[in-house]
Amino acid sequence: MNQASSSNLQRACYALATIGTVLALLILATSLLLRLATQATLDGHTESVLAPAIEQASRMVHRLSASSVGVLALLALLMCFRKPGLGPCMKQAIGWVLVTTIGLALIGPLTPGYRIEAITVFNVALGSLLLMGFWSLREFTRATRERPKPLTRIALLTLAALVLHIATGAGAAANSQWFHQRDWAVWLHVASAVSFIVCMVFFLRQRRPNRGAPLVKAWRYLLISQFLLGGLLVVLSLRPIWLNFSHGIVSALIAMVLLTLMLRQSD
Asked: The whole model's pTM is what?
C-alpha cells in the first residue's frame, strides 16, 4: 500500500472511530437517563418520571444511535477485508466493536422495562465496552508508530476491573429501583472500586516517567469527582436522577481517559 492510500485509510478509520465514539456515548447517556427515570410502582408496573417530550426524544436518539453504530460496525468489518494495511491492534479494536455491537443487539429486546437486573448489568457493561472499542480504535489510528504495541497484562486487568465496577454500579442502581435494597450489591460495587484502584496503582508504577502527565492529572480529577458523587449516592436517602446520571457519565469519561493513557503509553 502506497503512502497516499495508507494516509487515506488512517483518516477514514479515524473518522469512523470518532463518530462511533460519539454515538456510543449517546447510547450510554440516553440508556442511563431512561433507566434512571423508570421507576417501579407499588403494583409492580413501571413508569417514567421524565416529561413525555424528553422521554420520546431520548428514545429516538437512542434508536438512531444504535442503528448508526450497527452501520459503522459493518463498515469497519468491510474495511478489515478490503484494506490490508490495517495493523493487528486496529483489527482487534474493530473486533471488539463488532462483538459488543452484536451483544447489544441480542439483549436489546429484553431491556424495555428494566425488570431483569442481569440484562441491565450486561447492557451497561457491553455499552461501556463498545465505547472503549471505538475509542481504542481512534487512539490506535492516531498512533505515531506504524504498529502500536498491544496493551500490557496489568493494563488489561485494570480495564477489566473498571468494567466490573461500572457493571456492579448498574446492578446496585437496578436493585434500588425495584425496592430490593440489597446491601451486598452496594458493597460489591465498593469492592470493585477498591480492586480497580489497586490495579491502577500497579499500572501507574509501570508507566514511563513524564509520559502522559496531563492525562494522569485529568484521570485523578475525574476519579475524585466519581468518589464524591458515589459518596453522596450512598449517604442520601433520596437520590436525584441528575446525581446518578452524573455518576454514570463520569465512569464513561474515566474509561476514555484511562484508555488514552494506556494506549499512548505503548505508542
From this structure: 0.87
